[in-house]
Structures are given as C-alpha cells and as structure tokens.
Design brief:
single chain; about 375 residues; alpha/beta; FAD/NAD(P)-binding domain; D-Amino Acid Oxidase, Chain A, domain 2; 2 domains; seven-stranded mixed β-sheet; five-stranded parallel β-sheet; about 25% strand; FAD/NAD-bd_sf; monooxygenase activity; cytoplasm
C-alpha cells in the first residue's frame, strides 16, 4: 500500500496536494486549525497564472470547475498618478494568462473534490518531533497526537512543521498592507469605482501605494501599501476604525479624493497585514519523511505568486510521490530540488518588481515594466 500522507494546513497548497494525491489513488489526511470551512473570510481575488497555478489546477483535474469561477473582465488594469490622471491602461480582452477568481471559491472547489473526512477541522498543530526512521509525531493544541511516516507542512508563514527542517523564521520586510472594502461601489462610491475601473488600479509613489481590485458583487477591495516600521503601525489604534483610516489616509494628503476615498470610505474596519518573508535562498538538507509546501517553504512579500506557487508545489509534490510509489525519499528529493530553484526565481523577480513599485523612478519604471510585459 502506498504511504498515507499527513498534511498540516488546509490552504490552497495543502488542498491541491491532497487532491492530486487522491487523483493518483494515494490517501491523505489534512489537519486544519480552523473549526470549519467558513470559519473566516478567505481573502480577496487571486490571479491564477497559466505557467504555475493553472498547471496545478490541471493536475488536480479541476479545470472545468476553475473556468466556472473566473470573473470576466478583471484582468483589466490601470496605473494612476496621485492626482488621479490615468498614466497606463490595459483592457481585459480575454487573452491574458492570469484570470481572476475569488480565493474562497477556489478553496471551495478543492474541498468539494476530496473524499469526505479528508480534512479534519479544529486540529491546530502546536509542534512536531522526529521519532526516527523518517517517522514524525504531530502534537496538537488540545494535546492529541498523530504519528506519520510522511509529513507535509502546508501551514503557512508560522509553520509548526518547518523547525523539523530549518531554523529560519520570517522577518518583517519593512512594508505592510492596510486593507479596506467598499461595497455596492458603483452606486455608493461612484468616484472611487470609476477610478478603479473594471479590474485593478495601482497608484504608486515612493514608499507607498494605493492598490485596489474590483471583486465580485460590485465590491472594491483596497490594499494600501506603506513602507513603515512596525512601531509606526503599533501607534495606530485599529480598534477605532474611523481614526485608523484617517491616520492612514494622512499619508496620502494631496492625493485625488477618489483615491483617498478608497481608504476613508471603507465599509469595513481597516485591517493591518504586515509583510514577512523568509530568506530568498531558504533551503534545507533532506530530512527523511518530511517536507514543506507554499509559504511554509518560501514565504515572500505579497507579489501575486504566493498562492500560485503553493498550488504548484502541492501538485508537483503529489505528482512526484505518484511517480515514485516505492521510494518516498526519491520523490521528496526530486520535489525539493525543483522547488528551491523556482522559489528563488520568483523571489528575485519580486525584488525587481518592488524596485519599480517603491524606487526613485515611480511611476515611470512601473509603467515601463507593464508596457514591456504587455507588448
């Protein structure tokens, strides 16, 4: 019998792995800290790329379901000056390779594709320890344990499995998101809705940016990016939504009101999301019986690749295990060596993008980058 796989974390990476294993007849169990699939919102939109994320969807046998989730027109994008002038615009003509879907819906189709009982909800991992001979024990917060001969950490930035492989811990990148939502935007927030257009908006300046997406249901999702130390954000009382939004908006004094409205007119309290990252070249020596996927392996600042890479990791690991049914270690070694290379490439590309976003040549460098990309 093929080795059953124990997966910690029911995010997109862990679920893609479980689904690809299921396609190949390999059993797995996924342990997830959240008490249910609906325990919290699952974030906003994701652009799923044809060179990694969509390949994972194909490996999972879910392309038809995926196509049903795509939000038409959302690949349109525009870059605005702080005064509201449109500097660059690209329509969504349906030929782009990065269709947009809601993260929660993508997670839903993965969950629905797994046999009942695959995911064990309300099982928060507190740590893990090696037992020898490639076996490991996972200790849950409630004191329960599970022993496995193949353990996969798909448990994100603060992975409880990673210490089995690496002493690395995420460090603050120097920048954070502050998120807000505007609902019924075309009728209740028409100026902001017009500024965003049909897809996404970027309004960059040195060390700051207003970024917004048009999501499903006439919703605008704003990501305000600020390059500030954590202490600066700690001085803001985010429990006072109006005061917090006003303080963030002050960093954009003089900007067009339709842009600052994306901060001050939010229909939800602003949420702070600091960006953390692991070292770009994070890797480890092969440890029998355990590996990592997604942010647990290669956490980077948000760059549009995180979910795609996590899904691709899960698919590639599942395929490697299926290709080496009698040799788990060969499968893990093959998977890790390829994963280390692609994660470094993605992080290096991200550093290049961040130079354009927050460097001295904003917004000209960013426009040049998109013009080259779309030419």
């Amino acid at each position: 019998m093929r080795t059953p796989v124990t997966i910690i974390g029911a995010g997109l990476g862990g679920l893609t792995l479980a689904r690809v294993l299921h396609v190949h007849g390999i059993p797995s169990t996924v342990y997830e800290a959240e008490p249910s699939p609906a325990a919290r919102t699952q974030g906003g939109m994701l652009d799923i790329h044809d060179y990694n994320g969509q390949l994972a969807v194909e490996a999972a046998g879910l392309m038809d379901e995926f196509r049903g989730l795509v939000l038409e027109g959302r690949q349109a994008m525009r870059i605005l000056n702080p005064d509201g002038t449109v500097l660059f615009e690209k329509a969504d003509d349906g030929t782009g390779g990065r269709p947009e879907v809601q993260r929660a819906e993508l997670r839903r189709i993965l969950l629905e594709s797994l046999p009942a009982g695959t995911v064990r909800w309300g099982r928060k991992a507190g740590g893990a320890r090696a037992l020898g001979d490639g076996r490991h024990e996972v200790i849950f917060a409630d004191g329960a344990t599970v022993t496995t001969s193949l353990l996969v950490g798909a448990d994100g930035a603060w992975s409880r499995v990673r210490p089995l492989l690496s002493t690395a811990t995420p460090e603050y990148t120097g920048a954070s998101f502050v998120e807000t939502y505007l609902f019924d935007a075309d009728t209740r927030h028409p100026a902001a809705a017009k500024a965003v257009g049909g897809g996404s908006l970027m309004a960059p300046a040195q060390d700051k940016e207003i970024h917004a997406h048009r999501e499903s249901g006439d919703t605008l999702h704003t990501y305000v990016v600020l390059t500030k130390p954590l202490d600066w954000f700690a001085a803001i009382d985010f429990t006072d939504a109006a005061a917090a939004a006003a303080r963030i908006a002050r960093e954009f004094d003089g900007w067009a009101p339709e842009l600052t409205a994306l901060i001050t007119d939010g229909d939800t309290p602003p949420v702070l999301r600091p960006h953390y990252a692991l070292p770009i070249e994070h890797r480890w020596d092969r440890v029998p019986g355990v590996t990592l996927v997604g942010d647990a392996a290669h956490l980077a600042a948000p760059n549009g690749e995180g979910a795609n890479l996590a899904m691709y990791d899960g698919a590639e690991l599942g395929k490697a295990l299926a290709a080496h049914p009698g040799d788990v270690e060969a499968a893990l070694a093959e998977y890790e060596q390829a994963m280390f290379i692609r994660s470094v490439e993605a992080a290096t590309d991200d550093a290049h993008i961040r130079e354009h976003l927050f460097g001295d040549d904003v917004p000209d460098g960013l426009i040049e980058m998109f013009t080259e990309h779309h030419s």
